[in-house]
Design brief:
The complex is a heterodimer of chains A (about 250) and B (about 60).
Chain A lengths: L4 H6 L1 H4 L5 H9 L2 E5 L5 H11 L3 E5 L24 H12 L4 E5 L8 H6 L3 E4 L4 H14 L2 E8 L2 E7 L9 H4 L10 H4 L3 H21 L7 E6 L4 E6 L14
Parallel strand pairs in A: 1-2, 1-4, 2-3, 4-5
Antiparallel strand pairs in A: 5-6, 6-7, 7-8
Chain B lengths: L1 E4 L2 E4 L6 H8 L6 E4 L2 E3 L14 E5 L6
Parallel strand pairs in B: 1-5
Antiparallel strand pairs in B: 1-2, 3-4, 3-5
Classes of the chains: A alpha/beta (about 250), B alpha+beta (about 60).
Chain lengths: ~250, ~60
């Protein structure tokens, strides 16, 4: 496989980088990334991955665009209200980069044959807004040994975790947060500072590009906590819980 | 014994487990715990012995997106 003259030009600023270059750009072109949730995190993550030339993107979201989404879900325009997020996002991404394939699934993650979908994918970006979807995605990624880049944001706080399930000793999302419930805070009842989603979603895209082009991410098995009001980052090293109900070998 | 919890200095007299220490500090579940930058899995919270000088972080989960 080679890059066309148009692609050489489009991706020229990546091709100049030692850490990407033509080989890295070809890896991006051959990769499939699944983005679950086309909201505040999914929009910037998908925009950057599409612009960067990831060859195939699948966008999963069952919701329709509402006026209150537009404060932070930056792929959508005011005239998109009432349209479905997944297909609208896919159309915008396809317009941004016609060289790639973008699939839209207007379904819940639980209702889209997710395990089959992610089997051949390079990774999954968890950009959802609730605990049950996060647990479902984590279990599926663990089962299929598909890397998981988990992002989350609320108020002025953001968190990022990267899990590589090809490493047997790696922790999973369930190890870190084993007892979440859906009635905990979400963006519709607690609010969120718009650019926090851009920062965390962009970091999800960035770590995806690093995993694809270099085979590793500096954030693997780490929890990065971002405080927007203080403008501080704190990082914690993660390890598996030997009693984890998902990934422990005791199961 | 002196430790810090979320950056605040805390002093206590008796040796305590990580769990009882953060509970007496007022931590409400759900939370993740880290000591000196290392995550401590939930199954170890009750048995983990805190040492003087430890830097403890009580991390609230973030689920929004």
């Amino acid at each position: 496989m080679q890059l066309s003259a148009q692609e050489q030009l489009r991706y020229s600023r990546h091709l100049l980088l030692d850490k990407i270059g033509e080989q890295g750009q070809l890896k991006l072109k051959q990769s499939h990334v699944v983005i679950v949730g086309a909201g505040g995190l999914g929009c910037p993550a998908a925009l950057y991955l599409a612009a960067s030339g990831v060859g195939k993107l699948t966008i999963i979201d069952p919701d329709k665009i509402e006026l209150s989404n537009l404060q932070r879900q930056i792929i959508y325009k005011t005239n998109h209200i009432k349209r479905t997020k997944a297909q609208t996002a896919a159309n915008q991404l396809q317009a941004l980069n016609p060289e790639i394939q973008v699939d839209a699934l207007e379904k819940t993650v639980e209702g889209c044959e997710f395990d089959t979908l992610i089997k051949s994918a390079a990774m999954v970006l968890d950009c959802t807004d609730n605990a049950s979807s996060r647990y479902f995605i984590n279990q599926a990624c663990f089962n299929q040994q598909t890397a998981l880049i988990s992002g989350a944001a609320i108020r002025g706080e953001g968190q990022l975790m990267v899990f590589d399930f090809t490493n047997q000793a790696a922790p999973c999302y369930q190890c870190i947060y084993p007892d979440l419930q859906d009635e905990n805070l979400n963006c519709s009842n607690a609010g969120v500072l718009a650019p926090v989603l851009g920062i965390i979603g962009s970091m999800q895209a960035q770590e995806a590009i690093k995993l694809i082009t270099q085979g590793k991410s500096s954030q693997q098995n780490k929890l990065l906590c971002y405080d927007a009001w203080q403008m501080t980052f704190h990082q914690f090293n993660l390890n598996a819980d030997e009693n984890c109900t998902v990934c422990s070998s005791k199961n | 014994m002196k430790v810090t919890i979320n950056g605040k200095p805390v002093e206590f007299t008796q040796a305590q487990s990580l769990l009882s220490l953060v509970e007496s500090f007022g931590a409400q579940p759900p939370y993740a715990l880290a000591v000196n930058g290392q995550f401590i899995p939930k199954s170890q919270h009750a048995s983990y012995a805190v040492n003087t000088g430890d830097s403890i972080d009580v991390l609230s989960p973030v689920q929004g997106g």
